[in-house]
Every structure is written in structure tokens, then in C-alpha cells.
Design a protein that fits this description.
Blueprint (H helix, E strand, L loop, with lengths): L1 E7 L11 H10 L3 E9 L3 H10 L6 E10 L2 E6 L11 H11 L2 E4 L19 E6 L4 H14 L3 E4 L11 E5 L5 H10 L2 E5 L3
């Protein structure tokens, strides 16, 4: 069982202050969260830098990803080192994810730039049901959406500064490698929780 923060922004997002080194240092120091997905806004440049820094440690894992500003709302793609081809429609991002074996997730569906109930139209892999920057009511709506669609729910802090990291996490029945984590998310072998301590 691993614990992961599946939605993090680094300085490669224009609105984030988190340096890749700070993220890696925080993971190394954290007592139980050892997996983080780097999901910058419309950029994968932060992934390479963070993965390289994390390579020195055997007990932490960085998942390369991106938060794509699609025409229908924000989507996370976990397990990609490249941007999906444009135009960024929800359908094209889902197709891209399937083509490379990545996981596509509707990010914070009931907040600004979220898809809301439109998510029902797309064959995504999961719904982000616990977002560290969303209100309790927005997260509850997301949980209800995931349940009604029969989809797994994921958790991510959506951190833009170090103090926001790891506020929430996903407990995933997986090994400490990207392929195992992505498979477990697709299967729904995970639960979400607010981090304690």
C-alpha cells in the first residue's frame, strides 16, 4: 500500500512557487507520502527535472503528468512525458491517454475550470473526488459524480506552494513504480483521505 498526492504544480506552472527540489525534499522527509504526480498547467517541463532529482532516492516515486486546459474543463493526464496533441478537447485528451496507457482524470469537476456534469460525456478513467483546494461541498459533489459514473476517485492537494503539499492523499494498492500505480487507479484499487499530521 502506497500513499500518493496525485495533483501538484511546480514553478513550471506560472502560478506555482514549488521548486522541483523542494517537492523531492518534502517527499523524502515525509513519513508516509512517498509518491507525487507532477501536473503542471499545460506543461510537462517540470516532470523531467523532478524525476531526475528523485532518481537519487529508492523510496520515492514521481509520476509524470500534466493538467490540460481542455475546451470542456481541466483534465489530469498521469503517465505522460509529452503534451497531448492540440486541439485540446476532452475527447482528444481521453484518446491520447488511451493511446499511451496513461490515466485521464477529471480535475476538480465542481470548481472554476471544472467540467461539472459534462464529465459524464467522456470515457475518462477517474474523477478527482478530493482536491486540497476545493470546498467540502465541491468535493462531495465530485464523489457523487464518480459514484454515479462507476469510476474510481483520486485525491490531490493541487498544491501551488510548499505549505499546501500532501494535504490530502490517495492510498493505492500498488508497488512503487509508475505502471503499477496507473493500473491500480484504473482498477479502482485506491481510497482517498485528508492527511493527518
Amino acid at each position: 500500500m502506497i500513499q500518493a498526492d496525485l495533483h501538484i504544480h511546480t514553478v513550471y506552472s506560472s502560478d506555482s512557487l514549488i521548486q522541483p527540489k523542494s517537492l523531492v525534499d518534502m517527499l523524502v522527509a515525509h513519513s508516509f507520502i512517498k509518491v507525487a504526480a507532477v501536473t503542471d498547467h499545460d506543461s510537462v517541463r517540470g516532470c523531467r527535472a523532478t524525476v531526475e532529482l528523485a532518481a537519487a532516492y529508492t523510496d520515492i516515486l514521481i509520476i509524470s503528468g500534466v493538467e490540460v486546459s481542455t475546451t470542456g474543463g481541466d483534465m489530469l493526464v498521469l503517465g505522460t512525458e509529452e503534451l497531448p496533441p492540440k486541439p485540446w478537447t476532452p475527447e482528444s485528451v481521453v484518446d491520447y491517454g488511451k493511446s499511451i496507457g496513461a490515466v485521464t482524470i477529471v480535475a476538480h469537476p465542481f470548481r472554476e475550470y471544472g467540467m461539472g456534469d459534462l464529465a459524464r460525456k467522456y470515457s475518462v478513467d477517474a474523477i478527482e473526488v478530493l482536491n486540497g483546494n476545493s470546498s467540502t461541498s465541491a468535493n462531495n459533489e465530485a464523489k457523487a459524480l464518480a459514484k454515479s459514473m462507476g469510476l474510481p476517485g483520486t485525491a490531490g492537494s493541487d498544491a501551488h506552494q510548499v505549505s499546501e503539499l500532501f494535504r490530502v492523499n490517495a492510498k493505492i494498492e500498488a508497488n512503487l513504480n509508475v505502471e503499477s500505480v496507473l493500473k491500480a487507479i484504473k482498477k479502482g484499487s485506491l481510497s482517498t483521505q485528508v492527511s493527518k499530521g
